[in-house]
Amino acid sequence: MALFIRNNETISGQLNDDLVMVDIEKGSYFSLNSVATRIWELLENPLSSESLYEVLMAEYEVSPEQCRTEVNEYLEKMKELGLIQVVA
User: Fold this and answer.
1) What is the enclosing helix (H) or strand (E) of 30?
2) Do 42 and 55 touch, CB atoms closer than 8 A?
3) What is the residue-level pLDDT of the chain in tens, covering all 88 positions?
4) Cβ burial 39-68 (10 Å sphere, 16+ → b, else e)
5) Rounded to 10 degrees, what is the CA torsion of 63, 85, 42, 27?
C-alpha cells in the first residue's frame, strides 16, 4: 500500500483560509483551498489514501464516493506539482 508524505522543501504560509506555497527551485507558487490544506496538514506523517478518506469523511459532510474522487484528484495534482512524495 502506497503512503504519501509532504515534501518539506516547499515553503508555505497561511493566507486567510488558504495555504499558499512557494517552490523556490521552480519559481512557482500554489494556493490550496481548505480541503487541500487539510490534506497537506495530515501528510506531515506518511499516510495511505485510505487513512485520508477516513479522516476527511469524519471531518466533512461528504459521501464516500465523492471523498475518494476528490482526495485522489488532490493527491495526483500534488504529486505532479512535487508537493508530496509517495513512499513504500
Assistant:
1) strand 28-32
2) yes
3) 899 998 877 777 777 777 787 777 777 777 888 888 899 999 999 999 999 999 999 999 999 999 999 999 999 998 988 888 999 7
4) bbebbeeebeeeebbebbbeeeebeeeebb
5) -100
Q: How far apart are CA 25 and CA 41, in angstroms?
A: 22
Residue type, 49: S
- Give the position of cell 516547499: 10
Residue 67, amino acid? C
The number of beta carbons lying within 10 Å of the beta carbon of residue 83 is 23
Secondary structure (3-state) at 17: coil
What pTM did the predictor assign? 0.84
- Cell numbers placing 4: 504519501
Residue 84: how many CB atoms within 10 A of its CB?
21
Residue type, 11: I
